[in-house]
């Protein structure tokens, strides 16, 4: 594996690329650079929006990232953003930036389908809090991105599954698959996904983009289709940590309409120029990482060397055994999913796909004693995680133990507890603990498929995680748009 790293540019200032402004590749800009270009008057929101819409028209018929494209709405939003800017009205940090969201998020102008025809009627007709906040920040709405059925693990038979831009025979992750594909292919500048056990982190890792699963409760889930409210988390996805930070600042905060919403003040995540990691202690759970395949181990080892050169101190730590809490997560999430789908499944069982049906049936069979025991295990695990992080500022862990898995390899796994123990080994424990993690690309498999690294922190540490991720990306070249 060749280490893609550029320490020559570690001290560069973040600024817009003039050459990118002069050609048709506006869709390749980061949110940060696009916002700078808009502020400088180098481009307009309509320019950005038309460029990405043309890119979508060219590539998405093969990639299937979008379930619903709203070009008229997008151009109207863009023209409004340009008019406001021309008249001196600055609406927010995303003013004029084209954004697409996962098709689990309600918007009255772009109804969500939740990846299952039987669930279309669940659309509330109103707007989710996260969509309202995106609009308030000035975002341009491109449409809805494909997700797996009911935000679980497989796409419904009526939904063409998204294709990985780095290799169509390789997994895109689940369930924010469309978000990962759209970002990797330059079909949106940013996205909002959801994550119950890994659904932001797995697509980010497999598609080579950056995704933040925030602390549980930091972004409202009101108006977002649930899977398991005990663990459901909404989070930003983009191509860089700086972009993720901008999205996080736009949508995070307490929401009285969401009973799971935390009221603690939010530390702004926005990241400025070059970041100094000297003095930071980054934990490395070597025994856990050793379970991964060699491609993943090599990628993480090279990332560790980058962090050392950036000044961070690497400290070996031990994480609690993930298997008991993954079992507990399976019990609670399936029971909650069964309850949430009870009426719909009774009326439309024939429309449901096999994976979601299996989840519901497993959940229906959970006893009250099993659920109570699982909740005890989750509480115990949170205490163990807090102890493991007590001596470090953050920790490093792969997003997935397999580097760039193929669709055939993933098809060999059943969507049950046994497969979750393998695929969710590095993600589920951070869902049950509620700890935040930022996933950044850190390497490639032998087939050229991205490998993701989680930068994991304690609750409310999103700003620090974005700083660490930005420092890593300032000197590495793993992030960006796929060459397609």
Order of helices and strands: HHHEHEHEHEHEEHEHHEHHHHEHHHEEH
CATH homologous superfamily assignment: Amidase signature (AS) domain
Helix content: 40-55%
Strand pairing plus helix content: what structural class?
alpha/beta
What's the SSE blueprint?
Elements: H1 18-22, H2 31-40, H3 45-63, E1 66-69, H4 71-86, E2 98-102, H5 129-136, E3 140-145, H6 177-185, E4 190-195, H7 201-207, E5 210-213, E6 233-238, H8 241-251, E7 281-284, H9 286-289, H10 294-309, E8 313-316, H11 322-340, H12 342-348, H13 354-364, H14 368-388, E9 394-398, H15 407-411, H16 417-423, H17 428-433, E10 437-444, E11 450-456, H18 462-474
Parallel strand pairs: 2-3, 2-4, 7-8, 7-9
Antiparallel strand pairs: 1-3, 4-6, 5-6, 5-10, 9-11, 10-11
